[in-house]
Specification:
Layout: H1 17-34, E1 37-38, E2 44-46, H2 47-55, H3 59-63, E3 66-69, E4 75-78, H4 83-92, E5 103-112, E6 124-133, H5 138-154, E7 160-166, H6 170-184, H7 193-201, H8 216-219, H9 230-245, E8 251-252, E9 264-272, E10 282-288, H10 292-295, E11 303-309, H11 310-319, E12 332-336, H12 339-354, E13 359-361, H13 368-377, E14 382-386, H14 388-393, E15 395-400, E16 406-410, H15 414-422
Parallel strand pairs: 1-5, 7-8, 12-13, 12-14
Antiparallel strand pairs: 2-4, 3-4, 5-6, 6-11, 7-9, 9-10, 10-11, 14-15, 15-16
Helix pairs in contact: 1-5, 5-9
This protein binds histidyl-adenosine monophosphate (HAM).
Length: 423
Amino acid sequence: MAYKVPRGTQDILPDQTPKWQKIENTLRELARVYRYKEIRTPIFEHTELFQRSVGDTTDIVQKEMYTFEDRGGRSLTLRPEGTASTVRAYVEHKMYGSPEQPVKLSYMGPMFRYERQQAGRYRQFVQFGVEAIGSADPAIDAEIIAFAMDVYQTLGLKHLKLVINSLGDKETRDAHRTALINHFKPHIHEFCDDCKNRLEKNPLRILDCKVDREHPLMKTAPKLTVYLTPASKEYFDQVKKYLEALGIEYEVDPNLVRGLDYYNHTAFEIMSTSEGFGAITTLCGGGRYNGLVEEIGGPSVPGIGFALSIERLLLALEAEGVELEVNDGLDVYVIALGDEAKVKAVELVSSFRLKGISADMDYMMRKMKAQLKSADRLQAKFVVIIGEEELEEGVVVVKQMETGNQEKVQINEIVNYLKQHLN
Ligand code: HAM
């Protein structure tokens, strides 16, 4: 039997990992300058955590979780997202008591959702996310959005669209909820079973339904914007004011609702507007979740964050034809001619590596010509050749591959020589 990776997952092979590492390093560096310290939480959590936070009636909880019972009979779930775990850890470790507020956290790691496989949609994908917990200042909403935009711009993407919306406060949501129920109720028999269930539990989710998307009542559904309380409006205006001060262009989309239940006030997504992009254009999503900490058993503390996946980021880079500058080239390839020279070559390779110079040599007993070909294929910047004659003379032959220049260098000077010429 031939084994294959499970559907919706992928192997990232060595020719791709340099790109991943470049992106991961960029994300970590941005987290450093924005001051979001890394938190690492388990890959699985108690199932109830996601039911409570992401929401019982969401697609994620109802259809997409990898849930299993462990040998002790506990129901556990592979995390479908990172906010719930981060907030759980924040509460568990009483970070609300820290003198430094808001608490700014970041994370990067695999998430799991049992979704239909298509371009940009995987069952295991890597999210980078950040959360700022403890502040209800609209300036931090702008910081979070600016951070997300910065990720894409730093990596060279240009065809981006930022869409924002306000989901309002509890009062807004309650009034909107009632309006939605009144709107859909008389025709609910025309909708799918999921929507029938959602009607009383969470009618907002109906707007998110993939099955009934085209139903005429979807377009005429009451807009949340109409129910925004003056305080919510004022908050949203402030967020927009800060975005404008930062020179960040945005579009307000009153239909942006997001697929997770914990949001209120600011919600946003960043899309790729690149032509080559597939059907799923959302690169990043986030928003405010002022009731979540309390829901998970902590004090009443506000929060906001975003998450993006590296998989979709890579697709966007590809669609825009952006080549990341990655450094996986070889500094020096050492070729030995003869048994004694080989011993010296092993020593040299080791001494280069100790000085941070990437070095390699032949371990397949290939002839000189094949070794030179290897050096070429590996795009070595230098080749160092050592034969019996050079050994006796105490020198090596160094060839700079780009120019073809060749010279003899004293063996005890070779590390310095390479260091000088590699910069
Ligand atoms: P989300 O919109 O469910 O939000 O996911 C955020 C991002 O994760 C998406 O925009 C997309 O880039 C990526 N993503 C989601 N599902 C997949 C998939 N199946 N394959 C590849 N990429 C995917 C959240 O997860 C929230 N926790 C974001 C957040 C943080 N809100 C506040 N703080």
